[in-house]
Amino acid sequence: MNIHNRKTYGSLFGRLLAGMMTVTALSGLFPLCTSAAPGNVTGEKNIVVVIDPGHGGSNIGGQIPGIDEKNATLITALAMKEELEKYEGITVYMTRSGDADLSLEERANVAGAVGADFLFSLHYNKAVPNRLYGAEVWIPSLGENYARSYACGDMVLNELCDTYGLYRRGIKTKVSAVSGVDYYGVIKHASALGIPSMIIEHCHIDNEMDLPFFNSPEKLVQLGRLDATGVAKYFGLKSTSLGVDYSGIQKTTVAPAMARVIQDMTPPETAAISSASKNNGQITAVLQGMDSQSSILYYDYSLDGGLTWSALQKWNSVGTENTVTIPGNGDSLTVRIYNQYDLATQSAVVPVL
């Protein structure tokens, strides 16, 4: 389906949202979505989570023809809630179940009021300029909340990226240079209440690379189900109806952050071209990229000395060296190599032999 066909997409989008909200209303979930899942038969502590559909009301969020972020997040959140409630031992709340304005503090306060074990704020990304693509999560920068959110974020990205195919932009922190605390308000306010949290940025709605992952209402629902699976794996939940048991699944663990984990604010230390050679209308090049503080995510290239640049290309290498194939017959090549925080270092211009 072409997401830029506003009439067609908007009609399907509206019908799906109306249907899901009707089910919600019939369950007596307005204005705050609450629903207790079956009791934990093992006698372990019941898990309480709050799902926050980002934006709402006059706060529309990102927009492209045919889709508003505030509606997309609500569809995904309702699907995440429905999927999580198939597991035993979990109670799910939502900050909003309709088109409502909520402050970031109010969203965190919902989690505080119900004694939440975790707050998930769902979003869709949009960048200026619109060159970025992929999924990322933002987490608290300090203490146990950092460690728990990192472990859970890894599980969620495993589903969105390894299972579904979105490009992994990583698990990130952002600390305000002014206040010295977490930059994102919903994370800051949840942390003040002692609640682990994360912002899930599912994909970039303004980039063609991500278009196949969200360009139908059914795919917005699928993203919510993937979120739920990642959360269920993190908490080690079981579901009789789904026939799954994640109680023994291994999780990534990191130590609690004794000092704030500050975002990488410097570009990669290394951006170089080891070799570049022509081969049947293509250029084979060996690139060197290194960043000691964060991962390398993308590169782009220029065949005219930096006057024009390609779209961002995936850095498909776990090490510092990446052999790439570039279409064209240029006589020179230069590249820019980007880290996890989208900061770039440009290489020298090298001849293509």
Spatial ordering of strands, largest sheet: 1-5-2-6-9-7-8
Query: Which band does the percent of strand residues land in?
Result: 25-35%
Outline the biggest β-sheet. 7 strands, mixed
* SS element count, helices: 6
H/E element string?
HEEEEHEHEEHEHEHEEEEEEEEEE
> How large, in whole angstroms, is the Cα Rg?
22 Å
Mean pLDDT equals 90
Kindly name the structural category.
alpha+beta
Find the count of extended strands (DSSP E, 2+ residues).
19
- Shape estimate: elongated
**In percent, how helical is the residue content?**
25-40%
Residue windows where pLDDT falls under 50 for at least 5 positions: 1-12, 21-43
Give the assembly state of these chains: single chain
Give the end-to-end Cα distance, rounded to a whole number of Å: 44 Å
Q: Which key terms come to mind for this protein?
A:
five-stranded antiparallel sheet; alpha+beta; about 25% helix; disordered N terminus; about 350 residues
Description:
The relative contact order is 0.13. The chain has 353 residues and is α+β, with helices and mostly antiparallel strands. Helix 2 (69-84) crosses helix 6 (217-235) and helix 4 (143-163) crosses helix 6 (217-235). The chain is 27% helix and 27% strand. Strand 3 (63-64) and strand 4 (67-68) form a beta hairpin. The protein is elongated, with a radius of gyration of 22 Å. A 7-stranded mixed beta sheet has the order 1-5-2-6-9-7-8, sandwiched between helices. Strands 14, 15, 17, 18 and 19 form a 5-stranded antiparallel beta sheet that branches. A 3-stranded antiparallel beta sheet has the order 12-13-16, with no helix packed on it. The chain has helices spanning 6-26, 69-84, 104-113, 143-163, 185-192, 217-235; strands at residues 33-36, 47-53, 63-64, 67-68, 90-94, 118-125, 135-138, 168-172, 197-204, 238-239, 244-245, 270-279, 282-290, 296-302, 313-314, 321-327, 332-339, 344-346, 350-351.
